[in-house]
């Protein structure tokens, strides 16, 4: 029932000029209140490392997008002559793989 209520809240939240995140937060708090005897165990067992990593990734992407670095990167790639969609996909994937390996190497060192 809570899932259906949450889905309905997400569907009608724009009608009330509410952000979907607020509706999700309220539904999440309601879910926690339903299992109140296990809240401490849930908080302790929660995968905080993954949560903080994903939160950090969203912050970085938002910041890079806000400062226009994504648009600048796309323009640079087009200026390099990569205008075929398949080639662009391969280029972006290989750049992601390369950056991921450097990030993993940095993470394992520190």
The profile of the biggest β sheet is:
none
How large, in whole angstroms, is the Cα Rg?
20 Å
What is the tally of beta strands?
Answer: 0
Strand content: under 5%
Look at the helices and sheets and give the structural class.
mainly alpha
How would you spell out the order of helices and strands?
Answer: HHHHHH
Overall 3D geometry?
Answer: extended
Give the terminus-to-terminus CA distance: 45 Å
Average of the residue pLDDT scores: 83
What's the number of helices? 6
Q: Give the proportion of residues in helices.
A: over 70%
Spans where pLDDT lies below 50 across 5 or more residues: none
Any chance you could write out the topology, listing elements then pairs?
Elements: H1 2-12, H2 20-34, H3 39-45, H4 48-66, H5 69-79, H6 85-109
In a few lines, what is going on in this structure?
This protein has helices spanning 2-12, 20-34, 39-45, 48-66, 69-79, 85-109. With 110 residues, the chain is mainly alpha-helical.
Can you put this structure into words, describing what you see?
With 110 residues, the chain is an all-alpha fold. It has a domain at 80-110. It contains 6 helices and no strands. The chain has helices at 2-12, 20-34, 39-45, 48-66, 69-79, 85-109. Helix 1 runs antiparallel to helix 2. The longest helix has 25 residues, at 85-109. The radius of gyration is 20 Å and the shape is extended. The relative contact order is 0.05.
């Amino acid at each position: 029932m809570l899932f259906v209520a949450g889905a309905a809240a997400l569907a009608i939240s724009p009608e009330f000029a509410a952000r979907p995140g607020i509706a999700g937060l309220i539904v999440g708090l309601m879910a926690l209140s339903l299992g109140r005897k296990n809240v401490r165990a849930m908080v302790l067992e929660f995968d905080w490392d993954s949560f903080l990593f994903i939160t950090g990734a969203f912050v970085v992407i938002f910041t890079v997008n806000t400062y226009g670095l994504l648009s600048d990167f796309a323009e640079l790639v087009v200026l390099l002559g990569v205008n075929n969609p398949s080639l662009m996909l391969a280029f972006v994937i290989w750049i992601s793989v390369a950056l991921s390996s450097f990030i993993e190497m940095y993470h394992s060192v520190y």
